[in-house]
Design a protein that fits this description.
By secondary structure, the protein is α+β, with helices and mostly antiparallel strands. The strands form two sheets. A four-stranded antiparallel β-sheet has the order 4-1-6-7, with no helix packed on it. It has a four-stranded antiparallel β-sheet with strand order 3-2-5-8, with no helix packed on it. The longest helix has 23 residues.
Length: 134
Amino acid sequence: MHKRIIRTLIFIGILFVVSFYSKSQSRKVIFFHEIDDQARVYVDDELIYESDVVGYLGGVSIKVDITKHITTGDETVTIKLINIQCSDCSGGNPWSIIYELLDDEESIDYQVSDGIGGAGSKPVYSYSFRWDDL
């Protein structure tokens, strides 16, 4: 009788741990739909992703999984866009960025921004957030 109770308690404990672990380990992804010219992702000021210089391609499909960098949800995530100098651009060297934030494939935020100018090594776009604040 005692062995059955102990096995039941162990089984319930395992179910609790598995349930807690799966909830806390949801997959966190930044899904870039457009980058013109280069995107960078930082977590707590540490560069964790830098795209190639893409330029305007009419859309990209780049998923950046940041799950292993988000352990508490209090980390600050910053997305920056660099607009590379364009020697043959007419119209003032436009830039744009479109991305969404996915939590276990569910869209929880969507950002679109564009502008003209600001070419060089300094970001023309910067957005910071804490995952748990979304």
